[in-house]
Predict the 3D structure of the following.
Amino acid sequence: MTDLSRIAAIMSDMDISVTSAQALSGGHSRQTWLVTCADNRRVVLRFGGAHSHIEAAILNRAKPVVPVPEVIACGAGFLISEFVEGQTLEALLHAGIAAGEGEALAAQLGQSAAAIGTVEFDRSGFFTDGDLSVGKTLPQAHLLAPFCAEWLSKSGRFTSSETERWKAQCAQNFEILTPLNQISRLVHSDMNPKNIIVDRVDGGWKLKAFIDWEFAHSGCPFADVGNFCRFASEYPKGFLRSFVKAFEDAAPLLTEGWQKQARVLDMIALSDLASRSVGHVVGDKAAALIRSWTANGIPPLV
């Protein structure tokens, strides 16, 4: 069955006729389509993953605290949600945004990132079902250095000496994550400009939705800040400082060294990203950042 025929079959089961379907970028393990229905309504259909019911439950849990797409339907291997009008933050930053407007938008995003972290669970780990039960726990700090080194060694991007240096840097820093082991709050875990929809409203820019929650888990919200601040050079001057300040003011919990912990938490995601094949755009950028951090040390958050 082709993608288009599968889309038509899924929508037909809901008594909805499809006028057109357009493939969208985004999503690591799932295909994403913008579907126009016969009644002119537009929806987003994601399929290809086995855990769509978990993502639907995450969206419903996050909805009371931050804007997310409305879940329309969920079934075996697919999720249908509303199409949110606007553009990605990535597209907006590429086009350019005025300094004052940029800092105001960044503050909204920082406050919203903190709001995600107000959603609590019984323990940290990965969600296992539609009730968002937490099963497999996240690795302890002392186990993460070998994991990160293993990802790098499989990538074919790094020499053995580069991998060992990264492993050593991870080992030197991961102990500061130990105080975070008992934190069990909602983490988006892929908070970057391509997963944030914004739109112009009443003369200013407004957050419309956080999308693509497939990596969400229960853990420490500082990870989302580290993720967002990863590629600092891609933001205009003052943007990240406004984001971090707003998060700090609104966060439900902070530690004395939270900004350094946010950076170290992102070493996990960086290692995973760098394991992608050479030529993968984000993987290439992650590899460059790892080499920079290995050579120069972990930079301040802002």
The chain is about 40% helix and 15% strand. The CA atoms of residues 165 and 294 lie 7 Å apart. Strands lie at 18-24, 31-37, 42-47, 71-75, 78-82, 87-88, 185-187, 196-201, 204-210, 217-219. Residues 99-116 form the longest helix (18 residues).
